[in-house]
Each structure stands twice: as structure tokens, then as C-alpha cells.
Amino acid sequence: MKASHATFLRNFGGATIMTKQVISELFRPPLYFSLILEQIYQIGVMSLPLVLVTAGSTGMVMALQFGLGLEKFGGKLYVPKIVSISILREMGPVFSCLMLAARCGAGIASEIGSMTVTQQIDAIRALGTSPIKKIVIPRVLGCLIGIPILAMAANFVGVFGALVVCTNDLGLDPVFFVQKVLTTLWLPDFISGFMKTPVFALMIAIPACYFGLTVKGGTKGVGNATTMAVVTASISILVGDYILTKFYWVIEQWL
Amino acid sequence: MISVKHFRKSFDDRAVHKDVTFDVIEGECLGLVGGSGIGKSVVLRSLIGLEKGDGGEIWIEGEEISKLKERDLVEIRKKVAYVFQNGALFDSMSVYENLAYPLREHTNYDEKEIKRRVRNQLEEFGLGDAIKKLPAELSGGMQKRVGLARSLMIGPKVILYDEPTAGLDPYNTLKIQEMVLALKKKGVTSVFVTHDMPTAIAVCDRFCLLANGVVADVSMANAIKKQSMLDKFIQGDGV
CA–CA separation, A181 vs A81, rounded Å? Predict the structure, then answer.
């Protein structure tokens, strides 16, 4: 077996075992609510500007590209429909989660990695407490609660960005834009995108915590762990997006 | 009090410990010595379950701990404190928060009582002025003393010292030495891993020499002190 395959299997197995520990310790007291709230603030509130800028720009660029492309075929009036569906189903959740994988995944992995190399994680254990409870669970829950809310905000701002471009650059009436969006979108469009966000949140939090806790080799190891956390989360989000979309598509067909 | 029987540990293909066996009697301070990279810290970490051995048994106060799960080790870790080489203080917390941490986790004291106990502990360790400081604002010696103070907050019966004087100046080395001796007088059992032999001879009752993955020699500290006096006498240094 190649060394890279063995490393992949070791990391996958390690992250799975850590996830099992998270689930088993989640339902065993004590739960550190102050630490969870702190992480919701760090991940949710502190990431808001980044997510809003990303979503706003994405909505604006999409509206502009679709507008310019469809204008040639006289299809400019379809821009509100196409852009709003694209944002709610794909672009809002996926782009915001990719940005959060970079911001939060890197932050979590480097913070925990630094604690590992300075023996602070060992100190937590030596003092009779659990790093899973103290460090991992607050970050996993912070991501699970914060990221779906951020994705919802991203959807709203993305559509708003498209409205601005449609009104100013494509010459569409804002009332027409809002009417089209409201008549086009329905609950499954929202659910299709929104249901992915808790899965993406886990894809960000679990690798970040795992690579942080298993750092070896000092500061260089922290750098490697951070890179691995971001790369793993980004690839998982992109591959996972296809699988989840397909899964939801099958369910929609079935219903 | 502590009994290590046929302890084995390998890293990848390298067998660091092949058969390590020793006992620590209640109230005793055992010095664990040996060359660099011989695995002294691995044995010490295994005594509190921070490291898992590949075989053998580790008994603490009549309980076999080597096969305990992480959550079952909590009770052992309340009794056995570990003093890390660099203090391992939580760098985002103040000295006060660091010392309050074990009290908040394992006792039901209110904040007033926690404050009183932390202040008393810091005064005892000559660190009263450092209460509001962050670990990064402390010198290496002070960090080690805070680490020692934190590990004693819930009154452990056993203390494991991992190179507590490494990299310290003579003043701070002496301070740590005095603290270890004071704890020994109170009857605390300890295992002392170090390369600093003058400090080890001053605080330890007995020594275990680790070499080639086994306990190569066990000597009483008194015998070593006498031998060292004899060596000085033979070399004409006077005694």
C-alpha cells in the first residue's frame, strides 16, 4: 500500500473515531455553554462580513454575466429567476462554506495545533478534563449553529446583490425583479441549499479539530495541519455538494 | 503506591521500552534518570495515561490504569498531578484563571472561595504579583512555578515532575527545589524526571536508571551522596 493511501486511511479512521467521541460525549454532562457561545460568536458573528461580501459579490457577478449572456438572445428578463435559484440552491451555501472553510477551518486547526505543540491539550487531560468536551464540542457546535445561519444571510445578500445589478446595469425594474424572485422560488429551493449547510459545517469543523489535535513536529506541523484542514474541508464541500445535490434530486423525483 | 510492571512501548519500529519494572513507595521521591531520548518522559506520561503502552501494567493506588478509557482516568488524574517541562499554561487565560481551572472543574467552591484559594496558593509560591498576568508576560521560571502551583490546586497524592528545572537559572532552580522538598515533607509521593543531577540528588530518595529499554540500576540517593563525597575525597577536593 502506498504511503499516501495509508496516511489517508489513518486520517479518515482517526477523524471517524473523533466524531464518535464527540457524539458520545455530547450527551454526557457537563456541557460548557459559555465555550459554545464563545465559538458561535467567533465563527458566526466574526465571519459575517466575509460571508456577506462573498455572497454580495457572487450575486452581482452572476447577475451581470447572465444579463450580458442572455441579452443576446432576448432573455434578460429571466435573470432574476436564474440567479435567485442558483444562489439559493448552490452558490449561497457552497461559496459561503468554502470561505468559512478557509477562515474558520484554518483558525480552528492552527489554534488547536498550537495548543497541542505547547502541551496545553495534554494539560487539559492531565487536569482531569476532556479536550473533546473543552475544545472540540464547542467548535463543532459553533460551526453547526453558526454556519447555517450565515448561509441564510448569504442567500439574502446574494439575491440583493443581483437586484442591485439588475436594476442599475441591466435596466430591470426592482419591483419586477422582486415579483419574479417571489414567484419563482419555493420552499424546496431553499431546503435544497440549506440542508447542505450542517453537513458542510461538520466537513469544516471535524477535519480542523482532528488535524489540530494530531499535530506533530512543532510550528511546521501546525502549518501543515492548517493546510490539511482547509484542503480537506474544501474538497469535502465540493465533492459532498454533488452527492447531496444528487441525493436531494432523487428525493424530489420520488416525492 | 505506584507500580510499573513489564512496561513496553515502541514508536514505529523502535522499541523504546522493552521491560520497565519499578515501584514507588508512598511518600517517596523517585528519580527517573537516563540519557536523552531514552524514554523517561514516556514512562512519566504513561503513569497518568497521557501515553498508552504496548504492554505491561501500571498500578496507581491499587488500580490498574494502563487499560482504562480516557473518561475513567479522570479520577486517577485528580490524585496524580503532572508538572510539565514548560508549565503548559493555558496561554489565553490569566494566571488566576489557570489556577482556578482545576477548582472549577473538580470542586463546588463558589467564586469567592476559588479566589481565596488561588490567592493563597500564589502567595505560597511567591507569585502574588502575577495573578492578573498572562503566561506570555511571565519568565520561564515563573511559568514553571505557576504550572506547579496549578497542578497542586486540588491536593494530589502523587506528583510527576517532567524536567521541572530544565533551562532555569540557579535562583529559579533553587526555588523549584525548595518547593519540591516542601511537598515531600507533606508526604506527597513523587516521580522526578530530570537531567539536573544536583537537584535530583537534593530531592530524590532513590534513583532508577533507564538504559536499553529496561531499568538498568536502582540506587538509594544516600549511597550516591556518599559515593560522591568519596569521589571528592579521592580526588583531593576535600569533604
Answer: 6
Is the CB of A126 less than 8 angstroms away from the CB of B70?
no
- By the 8 A CB rule, do A52 and A158 touch? no
Q: Do A122 and B91 touch (CB under 8 A)?
A: no
Question: What confidence tier does A36 reach under pLDDT thresholds 50, 70, 90?
Answer: very high
pLDDT digits (tens, 9 = 90+) for A218-228: 889 999 999 99
B71, B75, B82 ranked by CB distance to A126: nearest: B82
Count other C-beta atoms under 10 Å from residue B184's C-beta: 19
Q: pTM of the full predicted structure?
A: 0.89
Q: Which residues in chain B touch residue A118, judged by CB atoms under 8 angstroms apart?
A: 86, 88, 91
Closest CA to B169 of B139, B146, B193: B139
Q: pLDDT higher for B221 or B52? A: B52
Mutate to test the interface with A, among B71, B72, B144 (most CBs of A within 10 A): B71
- Residue B87 near residue B144 (C-beta atoms within 8 A): yes
Is the four-CA dihedral B47, B183, B85, B204 of positive or negative sign? negative
